[in-house]
Specification:
2 domains, 12 helices
């Protein structure tokens, strides 16, 4: 019988978060060095949910100690570890390596220094509402759905809950505070789901600043573009 959501989260919820961090990244952790993916998970989780690290360490270790058989996986009774590019016999030892790195980070206070996100997972974990905004309103279909960028921003402003709009404005300011070069800012927007170029004459950071300024104003202004 497949697991119910509460049981899944209790037993595997944080393990799942760790493994999601490996999407598009190699599982090349060694006993001496965590991978780029695990470092990104540690950096973000230390900053946002430090208590979750102990949960992740426990769930990884317990899963490695008691790996499910094929029948239980087929029945949906266990969390299936996604394909991370390792031969199946090596996955169990790899999970122990991850648990050891997380435990060491907790016990020795080895916290990755602040930086801009490095992986696709970290960009989305750090800027979830900005990813929703860019991926939902500025996909490649944007020119067919809206007259221009201003119209798309105006639609988001009236469609989204005011609290989410405020969260988006905060995330835009946080991204701009990273001080990225324009080329790196453009890559960040792509990672977060934007599939069209910013409107002329703006570069990526200038357009983001304009969006934050507009959405940060009184809600009465949202219904139509500023002159």
């Amino acid at each position: 019988m497949p697991m119910k959501p509460l049981e899944h989260d209790r037993r595997y919820g944080e393990l799942d978060q760790v493994l999601r961090a490996y999407a598009g990244q190699p599982a090349d952790d060694t006993e001496d060095r965590p991978s780029v993916a695990l470092t990104a998970y540690l950096r973000h989780t230390w900053h946002t949910r430090p208590a979750a690290l102990a949960v992740a360490e426990t769930q990884l270790r317990e899963y490695a100690r008691n790996p499910p058989g094929r029948l239980r996986l087929k029945l949906g009774e266990f969390y299936p570890v996604p394909d991370v590019g390792l031969p199946e016999p090596e996955v169990r030892d790899w999970l122990f390596v991850l648990a050891t790195h997380i435990r060491r980070s907790i016990e020795e206070g080895e916290v990755p220094p602040p930086s801009a996100p490095v992986t696709h997972w970290e960009w989305h974990a750090r800027f979830p509402e900005l990813a929703q905004f860019l991926g939902g309103w500025f996909s490649q279909d944007m020119p067919d759905e809206f007259e221009d960028h201003d119209a798309a921003v105006a639609h988001y402003a009236v469609a989204a809950d005011p609290q989410l709009v405020a969260r988006l404005v905060g995330e835009v300011h946080e991204l701009l505070a990273l001080g990225l070069e324009e080329s790196d800012c453009a890559l960040a927007l792509t990672e977060l789901g934007m599939e069209v170029d910013p409107p002329a004459p703006y570069g990526p950071s200038g357009w983001l600043a304009q969006v934050a300024d507009r959405l940060g104003g009184p809600r009465a202004e949202y219904g139509s573009p500023r002159p």
